[in-house]
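Quick one, T. Sequence first:
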Amino acid sequence: MRKSFLSLAVLSALSLPAVSYAEEVAAPAAPESPHAFAYNVGLYSQYIFRGLTQTREDLALQGGVDYSHASGFYAGAWGSNISWLTDADTYKSSSLELDVYGGYANSIGETGVDYNVGLLQYIYPGRKISGKKKAETTEVYGSLSYGWVQGKVSVVVSDGAFGFDNADGSTYSELNLTVPFGSGFSALAHVGYQDFTGKGNSTFDYADWKLGLTKSWDSGVNVGAYYTDTDGKKSDFTDASNQNIAKEQFTVYVQKTF
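Structure tokens:
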């Protein structure tokens, strides 16, 4: 019995340094990847773009994917169903908007100011009516954010802008306010101005505004509602189906991010 206890004691003593050494040489944790992907899908009571309904007040299914790098570079793609091109008798068939974009976002030193610059391509697959301008549009954009406030300007660099010819240089300027107030709630406010260039296009210049409320959960589920309106003249924004796409609207949605 004494021999057994002695043997056990010796073995235990010999094993302790091995355990300690194993802890010291344990492999370090793998470094965090600089690459990140995010996904989103949402159901909206309608699709509103810069104050204008794109789906004739019908449901819109939307979704996208985003890639970001720790350096600040990012790229992504987003899509939604639409009807405004066929409603306006511009396309024989067109039911999809696809946006492809990329850019760079970062902070200005320790000032608390963030900036974001990039390029965005709007793509509208479908069959265009002969003699009509394609809706495809390319914009460059830049924004500055501080706390709850963001200012952004988008400039058209393609010849056409959403079906308007010779509209390069058209701008959309906006000011956005997002105010969080606890438990995942945020209040939203927005005002924007669309300024078209090109002969005769300035008739369609307009301002838009939005007020909304959102609620987010840690699970990635977001719900919200917002009211939008514009100062666009009914005579300028009534489509071929006699729908005023610039009138006041109320939109609700549910979204999931991954």
